[in-house]
Amino acid sequence: MRGKGEELAAGPAISAPLLADPARFDEFYRRYFLPLVRRATWKHRLAKEDARDVVQEAFLVALIKLDPKRNPKAWLIQVVDHLSVNFQRKVIRRARLVSRWSPSDAGVAEEDPIGDGPTICDGSDELSGRDD
Amino acid sequence: MDRLFATEVMNSADATIRPNESQLSELIPSWIVASRGVELQLGGDVSEIVTRAIDLRREIACGRPVRLDFENQSDTADLVHALSRLLMDDCLESPQSVLDQASFAVEILKGSLWVEDALGEWEAILCSAMFVAWRAARLLELSRAAQRWEAEYTEVFRRSVSWNVVEFALESAGDDSARAVAEVIAGGPESVFQALLFLRDHGEAAPDLAAQIATQFSRLIEIGRLRLPQDLQTFFLGESARLAGA
Known about the structure:
- The complex is a heterodimer of chains A (132) and B (246).
- Mean pLDDT of chain A is 74; it is low at 1-15 and 108-132.
- Chain A is mainly alpha-helical.
- Chain A has a domain at 15-105.
- Chain A has helices at 16-20, 22-42, 48-65, 72-101.
- With 246 residues, chain B is mainly alpha-helical.
- Chain B folds into two domains: 46-159; 162-245.
- Chain B starts with 11 loop residues before the first helix and ends with a helix.
- The relative contact order of chain B is 0.10.
- At the A-B interface, helix 1, helix 2, helix 3 and helix 4 of A face helix 1, helix 2, helix 3, helix 4 and helix 7 of B.
């Protein structure tokens, strides 16, 4: 999944396992990175690029705060959830400010990202089998 | 709060997770350095996946045989996540078809083999599909079916990583329960559902704290901290009030 021609930055000795071994890099990417991106995308309704940034930020937080003795996976998921919620709050706050200061551009919904609000691509009306 | 909610019995998920956990924490610094400047692929485009999920719903509704490619696990995971979201969004309007399709999704997921699932994504998606089915059954006033879905959900949830995620999320509740609860609520209806199930299980071990947190849930839901559909609002209010008074 690495970009062509991308150069990996030299890092401290601890980075050796993943820097030196593309297979291990890919394994980490598949086992941890991608599932967390999917969680931030689907549970918290973030765009994938934003989800990526949130997950990378979670890894940075983990660098400082993660306690390996206390279920790191659950901890990491919880941090991704927390950062995703914060990200959504910022988006909503920004959208409110934009709509307040430039009403003509107020195409940005103030929708709570949670609940049954509109979705990114709600084509469900096309579905057959409505109950009523 | 220091481990007030500590799960006393290690569940089966813990048993399989533990050996790799030190590996995860050791590899994170390495990942941060190695991924710097790398263009990481993020899987399929969201709107395209949602369109495929709509097609999938249509096939399920028509009774066509549906096969998901679990060889391409990342792509299929995206698709099932999208399906679950669509079903949740459509639950109020079409509970019967949502119930049928969510039940179908649960069966597909139960029969699938996820080769690589370090973070318990399979259980999380399965739980989401069951949550939708539970909600649809309640909307249809199928109380026995709703109870069955709730029991199934609880069983999967208890042995999933999500259980520990809730535990972490509520950890700060001893110091500032309103803040911890607000964070959980911001995670959406399923997060609230999980937290209430968690508190229900821990009501005996730490009754005062469980009641205190349940009271916060009740208060924040009541003042509309989470904009909830009426059916979920009613359930969550009732359940949190019951736990608060227990």
